[in-house]
Write a structure and sequence with these properties.
This protein is an alpha+beta fold and 592 residues long. The protein has a domain of 299 residues: Outer membrane efflux proteins (OEP). The strands form four sheets. A four-stranded antiparallel β-sheet has the order 5-8-10-11. Helix 4 runs antiparallel to helix 5, helix 7 packs antiparallel against helix 8 and helix 8 runs antiparallel to helix 9. The longest helix has 69 residues.
Length: 592
């Protein structure tokens, strides 16, 4: 009985819960639906569909939801999701600091470099500069090696020999003239006892001196030109590294400034979006204005992200050029910071004077001059194959007594040897070597002439780029001011109701473009200045650091490379292939 009563109470409670849940009228946000058919006759559920209360058409409003998106109520019943508002933006629009991002990039505690500090650090640690210094050391070793062939060489030699007595015969037999048998040892005449010592030694101290070898003497001269070539290669490397450091340093600065430009543009677009949202909520502008402002904002955000990435990469490239190692303690943090600004310092360029200065100062040409002079010496080395070779040897010798191994009983004396050779006929081997070296010499001379033209071309290009970027700076500077004024006027017209939002957005885009173009023009001008200094050889401020390794010959007139000398350093002669003035040729009289 009690069990049945408890079961009935449970069923009644369950049915009451169903009535409470499903018997309520639908909320305004729910669409009314038909109630299910009751399965239990004892439960009273109204099956009539309630008539919905008519509600006025709501005014579209913008409200951010929990996910960060903005829901816009529509008169069509749809609730499309549009881009986040600035206050709920999930993308890093409002970054905490310049250069920081989700990658953990931070410049706190990073060493700070000015331009001169960066250049000095690169000259001390850049691998290319260090390799060029080692090449100078190598050529000095070649000089020592080749020069040693013409200098005296002294060295002792020693030989010691012991023979087991069992391998020696006690007597020495002689064959008879008649061809008979050798006398039996100890039985008669002919048996002579062997008294030679078991130990024989010999000590010599000799010296050798090259008396004459034309090839060796000219090869020694060639090694000095190789050393000079290595030094000028170092100077050329120094100029290239300085130009690279300057360019990369300026690249870091311009990328940093471009981040500021992009951030300012994003901030202005954010404020414009917020203004349009407020106007939309007030019912003064359509929703299209809000969507248009948001699209413009989020078209600008990728450019900000790309600018920050370009800045990080440029910093890493500069650190690599400076020879800075990766610091695991800093992780992905910035390896350095730069201090400086892009400045416009006009420089007047005299092209003719710059070309002449480039020819005289460029280590590139002086290195090729050294290669030409070395090729001349190699021709003489080949000519030496035709000439005689004379060597002299001399010294003392100590020889043990063949019957006594005592060190006090030795034979000693002096010896002298003079040897010589002269290849009278070698079937053209020497002539073939000479022809090869003469061809290589001609190649080096042609290379020198082409390098002169290359220097002229590089200077002309640098001067042209300098003029172009100077004009760009002047044009973009004025354009930047005009774009700023256009943005101000567009906003004023919009506030006064005479303009449109599209005018403001277009003006803002033009301002960002003008600012970026101006920064790029500044960067291009400073980069052109660095390149102009390199191609004219005007990097003496920093290259004096390596004057201590400069051979004395590199300061002589041997390496004068002005316009008035040729590849050999001799005064230029008139080029027979140079086109001269055209003279009129009178027609040949007819024989008729």
């Amino acid at each position: 009985m009690r069990k049945n009563f408890a079961y009935g109470v449970s069923v009644v409670a369950l049915l009451g819960f169903i009535v409470v849940v499903f018997g309520q009228p639908p909320t305004p946000t729910e669409s009314p639906t038909a109630t299910p058919t009751p399965t239990t006759p004892s439960v009273l559920i109204s099956t009539a569909t309630p008539t919905p209360t008519p509600t006025p058409v709501p005014t579209p409003t913008i409200t951010p939801n929990e996910s960060g998106t903005v829901s816009v109520s529509s008169t069509l019943g749809a609730s499309p999701s549009i881009s986040p508002s600035p206050s709920a933006t999930p993308i890093a629009v409002q970054a905490a600091a310049l250069g920081e991002s989700d990658l953990g990039w931070s410049e706190k505690g990073a060493p700070v470099f000015r331009l001169d500090q960066a250049v000095i650090t690169a000259l001390a640690q850049n691998p290319t500069v260090l390799q060029a210094l080692e090449e100078i050391r190598r050529t000095k070793g070649v000089i020592i090696q080749i020069r040693a062939e013409a200098l005296p060489q002294i060295g002792p030699s020693f030989s010691w020999n012991w023979t087991d007595p069992n391998l020696r015969q006690n007597t020495t037999g002689f064959t008879t003239f008649s061809g008979g048998p050798t006398p039996v040892p100890g039985t008669g005449m002919g048996g002579i006892k062997n008294l030679r010592s078991d130990i024989i030694y010999n000590v010599q101290v000799t010296g050798s001196q090259l008396v004459f070898n034309y090839s060796t003497f000219r090869a020694i001269r060639g090694t000095f030109f190789q050393r000079d070539s290595a030094y000028f290669a170092l100077r050329n490397t120094v100029d290239q590294v300085i130009s690279t450091v300057k360019t990369q340093f300026y690249q870091v600065i311009v990328n940093r400034e471009l981040i500021v430009v992009q951030e300012e543009s994003v901030n202005l677009l954010e404020s414009q979006l917020k203004d349009q949202q407020n106007r939309f909520e007030a019912g003064t502008v359509p929703r299209f204005n809000v969507l248009q402002a948001q699209v413009q904002l989020y078209n600008q955000i990728p450019q900000l992200i790309a600018a920050r990435n370009s800045y990080r990469i440029s910093v890493l490239q500069l650190a690599k050029t400076l020879g800075l190692d990766f610091n695991p303690a800093r992780g992905n943090a910035a390896p350095l910071r730069v201090r400086g600004e892009l400045a416009y310092i006009p420089r007047k360029v005299d092209l003719l004077a710059a070309i002449e200065a480039g020819k005289r100062n460029r280590p590139f040409l002086k290195q090729q001059r050294a290669n030409v002079l070395n090729a001349i010496e190699q021709v003489h080395v080949a000519i030496g194959s035709w000439l005689p070779n004379v060597n002299a040897n001399g010294g003392g010798e100590w020889l043990s007594n063949q019957f006594n191994s005592s060190f006090g009983d030795v034979s000693k004396g002096w010896l002298t040897t003079v040897t010589g050779s002269w290849p009278i006929w070698d079937s053209g081997m020497a002539w073939g070597k000479i022809q090869q070296q003469r061809a290589l010499l001609s190649e080096q001379e042609i290379t020198y002439d082409d390098d002169v033209r290359q220097v002229e071309l590089e200077i002309q290009q640098a001067a042209s780029n300098l003029a172009q970027n100077r004009e760009l700076i002047q044009a973009t500077e004025k354009n930047q001011e005009t774009a700023e004024e256009a943005v101000r006027l567009a906003k004023a017209r919009l506030d006064a109701g005479a303009g449109t939002q599209l005018d403001v957005l277009n003006a803002q885009v033009q301002l960002t473009t003008a600012q970026s173009t101006y920064l790029q023009a500044l960067f291009g001008y400073n980069q052109s200045l660095a390149e102009f200094d390199r191609v004219t050889g005007a990097q003496s401020t920093y290259s004096e650091k390596f004057d201590g390794v400069a051979p004395h010959a590199t300061r002589s007139r041997t390496y004068y490379t002005g316009s008035d000398v040729d590849a050999l350093g001799k005064p230029k002669r008139t080029n027979p292939f140079q086109p001269g003035p055209v003279t009129a040729i009178s027609p040949r009289p007819s024989s008729k």
